[in-house]
Design goal:
Layout lengths: L11 E11 L4 E7 L9 E2 L1 E4 L6 H13 L5 E8 L10 E11 H4 L10 E4 L10 H15 L14 E2 H12 L5 H10 L3 E8 L7 E6 L23
Length: about 240
Amino acid sequence: MAAKYSNQSRYTVAVDCIVFGYDGKNLKILLVKRALIPLKGRWSLMGGFVAKNESADQAASRILAALTGLTNVYQEQFYTFTDPGRDTQERTISIAYFSLIDIKKYKESISDAYQAEWFSIKDFPNLIFDHQAMVKMAKKRLQYKATSHAILFELLPDKFTLPLLQSLFEDVYETSFDKGNFSRKMLSTGLLLKQRDKDKTGSKKGAYFYKLDRKNYQQNLHKILKLVPNPNSIL
C-alpha cells in the first residue's frame, strides 16, 4: 500500500452550481435555502461535497439531478474558488459550474425539498460566502461562451420565435437590438430552420416558429459574433 503524502493539509472539496433559466422574459438563476450551519436558512447556490469515489463533474451532475430531477442538462465547469477564508466553517475549495435549462419546460421537476426559487439575474438576494462573485463570473462566462457557441438555445424551447430569441439575447447582454436588424443578422447565420406554424399569442398575424439547425450549426457558429455588442470587451 502506497504511503500518504506526509505533512500535507487536508481540504474539503465542494461543487457549486449556478443554474441559469429563461422564462420568456428574464434570465434567472435558481437559488436554494442553505440547510447546513453556518448561515443555515440563507439563500445559496445549489452545491455539495465531492464524494470520495466520484469526480467533480459527477458530483455536479448528481447535485443538479437531485435539485431539478434532470439529467443530460448543459453543464460547464468554469472556475475554482480557493480563497482560504471563503468558507467560515473549514477550508473548502469549490469547483463552480453553470447550467442552462428552459424554466417553462422543467419548472415542475424542481425539487421542493430544497426550497428552491427562481430570481432575476438583475435582482436576487445576498448570497452566502463568495456565491455572489460566482454568479457574476458565471454570467461573464455565459456571455463569452455564447459568442462562439449556440449555448443560449439551451435556455429556449425546441421551437421559438425571433422576438423570443431577441429578448433572450438582450437580457443576457444587457442591451437592446433593433428588431429588423437583429432578425436579418440572425437569419443570415444559417443557424435557424423556419417552421410552418406560428405563435399567435401576441397578435393575430403571429410570428413564425424556428428551430436550431443542429445538423449544420457547427460551421455557422462564428456568425453569432455579428450579433454581440463589442464581443472583444467580454471577459
